[in-house]
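Exercise 7.
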Amino acid sequence: MQGMVNKMMEDAMKHAQSPQRAEPFVYGFSMRVGPDGTPHLQPFGSAAKDVPEVGLEAGSREPMSDVLEGDQDVSITVELPGVEKADVNLHVGDENVTVRVEKGRRYHKHISLPAKVVPSTAKATFKNGILDVSVQKAHGGGSDHKVSIE
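Solution. The predicted structure, written as tokens, is:
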């Protein structure tokens, strides 16, 4: 894991010092140990086309997020500072959630879920820059669903 972190930081610094960058470079990661004891690194920050390790759209930032799996549901929390609720675009699929903000501060986050869910059961709230999403686990298939945020 140390080797992976070192490579990520070397690549990030190389791209951050590129003369083509016209915006601030923000890059970091959070680490969480999964239920199986395996550590999971989750990157966040700004990105450019030339930073493939981050996997974001040019000019957007990947916000911090957290996913918690319960017995019956999956809960997702996404930090979107400086964003208005009306500017948040949220889609829930069978196995993933996509959050996108394209007005003002630009954010993009594609989150793989730990279990299949029923997209039509998704409920979302947004308060003080924090998006909370809850969706019921599935016992069968479903489809992509745009979610209204309360």
